[in-house]
Amino acid sequence: FHVPLRLPNRQSVTLTVYNLTGHTILEKEQLLNAGNHDITVNMDTYSSGIYFLQIKSTDYHSVHKMIYLK
Predict the structure, then answer these.
(1) Does residue 20 sit in helix, strand or coil?
(2) Beta strand segments in 1-70, E
(3) Domains and CATH numbers, the chain
(4) pLDDT tens digits for 23-40?
(5) How far is CA 69 from the centre of its chain?
(6) Cβ neighbours of residue 34 closer than 8 Å, sequence gap 6 or more
(7) Across the chain, what does the average pLDDT equal?
(8) pTM value?
(9) What's residue 59's pLDDT?
(10) Which of 15, 40, 47, 65 has its CA 20 to 30 A from that of 55?
């Protein structure tokens, strides 16, 4: 899946995917320049189910519930 981001300045962005029990199954950190970005997260090796996506940067933090279907 893809995560679109717009950053006002250069900063480190961390995407973390958790399963329903709260275990981290995937973490991706990137230093990105200001502007629009489309970060690709590959979950091909994981089962269909409910996951949580956490997005953290210098001035932004959010958690999204997602349903992954193969």
Answers:
(1) coil
(2) 2-7, 11-18, 24-32, 35-40, 49-57, 60-68
(3) 2-68 (2.60.40.3080)
(4) 999 999 999 999 999 999
(5) 17
(6) 7, 8, 9, 10
(7) 94
(8) 0.86
(9) 86
(10) 47
- Paired tokens of 24: 């981290």
Q: Hunting for tokens 């709260």 — which residue is that? A: 22
- Asked if 12 contacts 29 with a C-beta cutoff of 8 angstroms, the reply is yes
Tell me which amino acid residue 18 is. Y
In the numeric block, which tokens belong to residue 32?
A: 């990105």
Sheet of strand 11-18: strand arrangement: 24-32, 11-18, 49-57, 60-68
**Beta carbons of 46 and 25 less than 8 angstroms apart:** yes
Q: Is pLDDT at 9 greater than 90 in this prediction?
A: yes
| The pair of three-digit structure tokens given for residue 44, joined into one six-digit string | 């091909």
